[in-house]
Amino acid sequence: MTQRYDCRDAFEDTLRELAGQDARIVAIVNDSVGSSKLTQFKEQYPQRLVNVGIAEQNMIGVGAGLANGGLIPFVCGATPFLTGRALEQIKSDIAYSNTNVKLCGMSSGMAYGELGPTHHSIEDMAWLRAIANLTIIVPADSLETEQAVQTAAATVGPMFLRISRLPVPIVHTGDYRFEIGKAARLREGSDITLITNGVLVSCALEAAELLAARGIQARVLNMSTIRPLDREAVLAAASETGGIVTAEEHTIFGGLGSAVAEVTATTHPVPMRILGVPGTFAPTGPAAWLLQYFGLTAQGIFDAALELIGVKV
Known about the structure:
The protein is α/β, with parallel strands linked by helices and 313 residues long. The protein has 12 helices and 12 strands. It has helices at 7-21, 39-44, 56-68, 79-84, 87-95, 124-129, 142-154, 201-213, 231-240, 256-267, 287-293, 298-308; strands at 25-29, 49-51, 72-78, 102-106, 135-137, 159-163, 184-187, 192-196, 218-222, 225-227, 244-251, 272-277.
């Protein structure tokens, strides 16, 4: 059985390591030390973790203030509350002023399945992607999470990291190097392209295996940076393969699929299918069941790809 890893562990390990190298790195949480996996960080650097309590708007303001004081704050909290409650502060205090704050949305997508729609974060990429100056990154595995955190610490400017709590396998090879705005081509193919990120990258790779068994060669792109999007990779997929299927743990409105469609529609129109939550609130239930419910699985991606190119399932 393929081993799976919680990306929050890689996040915390990397942040502690970086904090040991750079005294400017601090963490800010909204009463979420445990869910952000920052217990060891707190023990090792108790003076460098600020817990503002359940006060997300204040948390963003504190992060902006610390950044203006020369520190590098990683502001961590459950994604629906970090982004939804504090959207105005993210826009005005961080993005508009181009402040060096790293927003870390934990347990994104439908990871809080049993807690229901109030805790699901399936709109965050849509409303954050509309804000100028904000880099948006959705790591696919623990290796990419580690490199994304390192890149965030070394890059001046506001950034949002979307970190899942659902265990995922390693999808990148050991020589992989994350780069902002650069998609990773994880599998070659000329018949169709599967574009995804986060927890669904491993599903896309499994779908590509299923398609190969049917004689269909699928290119697989991990589009871990949503903004800025890798337009060249999208255009290459549109011009070199017969169609594009996107899949995301997010509403189909305003996220990855929309970003890809914006490129193809204005440059090289191509048949597409956009998989995600279809404009509804997700029901309450385990996260794995919710992914299955919305067809966000290897089988669901496989079926969508066959339907797109006109092959009977």
